[in-house]
């Protein structure tokens, strides 16, 4: 059988099985989700082993002995699997990772996130240059101040003034969350719609040596999947 | 058909990015960064490939760095197939004009370590020593890069570790959900420019005249926006209808 046909059948089966959860949880969806987790773990294990082999072991063997330090620290993390008696050893490499990570993050934070961002937001000089520039800057300044108010004056939330401020200052935060959520959701919907369109658009002759339209194969797979789910569900109901 | 419907991001950012790539010259070296895992990278793919096509047109050399351990898969299965023909046409040779860096675990710490010393792990993804790769002979730290194209949600790491420390010119390709970060970072002068999602990719594809995924996908995004708006309107009508009709 042609590899392309096998690929197509497997891809269609996975796609329809995943979508079948919209109807109800079923054996096909669980099979695919468990397979996905299994395949991911397998693939990531291979990648991790390759990274250690090429990034640490190969240079170590060639004489870069400083790489023995991260290798030993990495092995020490595994001591948490040896029971309580030795688990404390695994904390040392974690402390090093957390300490170095925090220190490095702090290095650029003040310049990049505090000073730079405040300077960028409070650009009063831009106000009045163009109508859109003015609008953008006023919105930036007002929304930033309101967000500060929400978080810094949380102790006032009990009073009537505080509640009023809280309600107003919640607005920019919810707007930001809403826009992020909506655009993120749209991207995910796009992937779904793209997959459906791709499967539907493939015409006759897509699969070499066969005149079967891919859509026909998809419909057959869908009927089989949904038929089995319906049959199993009905039997489960009887029992 | 290109029917853009998305949160309003001025196209000036796309033009700014185009002009920045135009300033790169033959044999300049940029650090191309894959900052998302395989599943998420699809949201940057059109913009990333369009920009890379432009950089390849300019015959810019590049090294590929990853923030996640499946970055190499993103390169091998998503990006490289889209660029390989163009790279062959321009005579790109592995090791001379481009190279795949090893994966360095540690996320932001790894980004900082790589920027400080690109030879911190002195061999490429395949295990070949950097001594054998001509491109790496002049690349020792972020100061040797002529810029960085970063695709993923790692803008804070690269701004903190690359721009703030070395003054590296950074371009960010973000997921649409992170769209708010772009203008703030550009206005602060912390990044050169940014593109968000498939819309950004579509704009750049138009600019470099290489229609691909972004332009095709934009129409779908637009239709999806209309569907969502329609559902919201229907939901509101149903809610208010029930409320004022005496329902609970």
Write up what this structure looks like.
- The complex is a heterodimer of chains A (about 240) and B (about 250).
- Chain A has eight helices and no strands.
- The model of chain A has no long low-confidence stretch (mean pLDDT about 85).
- By secondary structure, chain A is mainly α.
- Chain B contains nine helices and six strands, in the order H-E-H-H-E-H-E-H-E-H-E-H-E-H-H.
- In chain B, helix 6 links the parallel strand 4 and strand 5.
- The longest helix of chain B is centred in the C-terminal third of the chain and has 32 residues.
- Chains A and B meet through helix 2, helix 5 and helix 7 of A and helix 5, helix 6 and helix 9 of B.
SSE inventory with pairings:
The complex is a heterodimer of chains A (239) and B (248).
Chain A: H1 3-19, H2 27-61, H3 68-77, H4 84-87, H5 91-121, H6 131-152, H7 160-201, H8 214-238
Chain B: H1 12-23, E1 29-35, H2 38-41, H3 45-57, E2 61-66, H4 71-89, E3 98-100, H5 108-116, E4 148-152, H6 155-166, E5 170-174, H7 181-187, E6 193-196, H8 197-208, H9 213-244
Parallel strand pairs in B: 1-2, 1-4, 2-3, 4-5, 5-6
Kindly state the number of beta strands of chain B.
Answer: 6
CA-based gyration radius of chain B:
20 Å
Dominant shape of chain A? extended
Count of helical stretches of chain A:
8
Q: Indicate the low-confidence ranges of chain B by residue numbers.
A: none
Oligomer: heterodimer
Determine the strand fraction of chain B and express it as a percent band. 5-15%
Write the element-wise H/E pattern of chain B from the N-terminal end onward.
Answer: HEHHEHEHEHEHEHH
Mean pLDDT score of chain B, rounded?
88
Continuous helix count of chain B:
9
What's the helix-strand series of chain A? HHHHHHHH
Report how far the terminal alpha carbons of chain B are from each other. Answer: 45 Å
Largest sheet of chain A: none
How large, in whole angstroms, is the Cα Rg of chain A?
Answer: 29 Å
Our estimate of the beta-strand percent of chain A is: under 5%
| Helix share, percent of chain A | over 70%
Structural class of chain A: mainly alpha
| End-to-end gap of chain A | 40 Å
Low-confidence stretches of chain A: none
Number of strands of chain A: 0
């Amino acid at each position: 059988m042609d590899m392309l046909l096998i690929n197509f059948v497997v891809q269609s089966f996975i796609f329809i099985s995943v979508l079948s959860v919209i109807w109800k949880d079923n054996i096909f969806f669980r099979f695919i989700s468990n397979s996905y987790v299994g395949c991911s773990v397998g693939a990531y294990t291979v990648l991790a082993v390759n990274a250690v082999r090429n990034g640490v072991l190969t240079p170590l063997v060639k004489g870069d002995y400083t790489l023995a330090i991260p290798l030993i620290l990495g092995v020490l993390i595994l001591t948490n699997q040896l029971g309580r008696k030795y688990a404390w050893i695994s904390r040392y490499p974690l402390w090093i990772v957390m300490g170095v990570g925090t220190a490095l993050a702090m290095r650029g934070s003040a310049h990049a996130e505090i000073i730079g961002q405040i300077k960028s937001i409070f650009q009063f000089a831009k106000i009045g240059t163009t109508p859109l520039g003015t609008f953008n800057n006023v919105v930036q300044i007002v929304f930033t101040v309101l967000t500060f108010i929400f978080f810094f004056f949380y102790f006032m939330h009990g009073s009537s003034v505080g509640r009023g401020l809280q309600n107003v200052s919640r607005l920019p935060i919810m707007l930001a969350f809403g826009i992020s959520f909506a655009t993120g959701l749209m991207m995910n919907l796009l992937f779904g719609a793209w997959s459906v369109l791709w499967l539907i658009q493939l015409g006759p002759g897509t699969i070499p040596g066969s005149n079967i339209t891919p859509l026909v194969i998809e419909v057959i797979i869908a009927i089989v999947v949904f038929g089995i789910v319906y049959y199993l569900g009905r039997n489960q109901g009887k029992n | 058909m290109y029917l853009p419907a998305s949160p309003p991001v001025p196209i000036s950012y796309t033009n700014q990015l185009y002009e920045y790539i135009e300033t790169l010259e033959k044999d300049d070296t940029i650090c191309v960064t894959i900052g998302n895992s395989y599943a998420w990278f699809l949201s940057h793919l059109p913009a990333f490939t369009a920009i890379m096509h432009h950089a390849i047109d300019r015959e810019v050399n590049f090294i590929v760095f990853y923030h996640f351990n499946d970055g190499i898969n993103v390169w091998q299965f998503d990006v490289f197939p889209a660029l390989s023909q163009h790279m062959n046409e321009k005579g790109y040779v592995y090791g001379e004009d481009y190279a795949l860096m090893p994966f360095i675990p540690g996320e932001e710490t790894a980004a900082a370590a790589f920027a400080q010393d690109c030879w911190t792990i002195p061999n490429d993804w395949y295990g070949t020593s950097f001594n054998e790769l001509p491109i790496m002979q002049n690349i020792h730290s972020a100061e040797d890069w002529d810029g960085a194209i970063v695709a993923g949600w790692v803008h804070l790491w690269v701004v903190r570790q690359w721009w703030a420390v070395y003054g590296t010119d950074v371009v960010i390709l973000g997921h649409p959900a992170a769209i708010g970060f772009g203008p703030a970072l550009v206005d602060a002068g912390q990044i050169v420019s940014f593109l968000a999602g498939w819309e950004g990719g579509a704009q750049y594809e138009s600019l470099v005249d290489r229609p691909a995924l972004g332009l095709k996908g934009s129409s779908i995004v637009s239709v999806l926006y209309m569907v969502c708006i329609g559902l919201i309107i229907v939901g509101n009508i149903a809610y208010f209808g029930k409320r004022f009709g005496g329902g609970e």
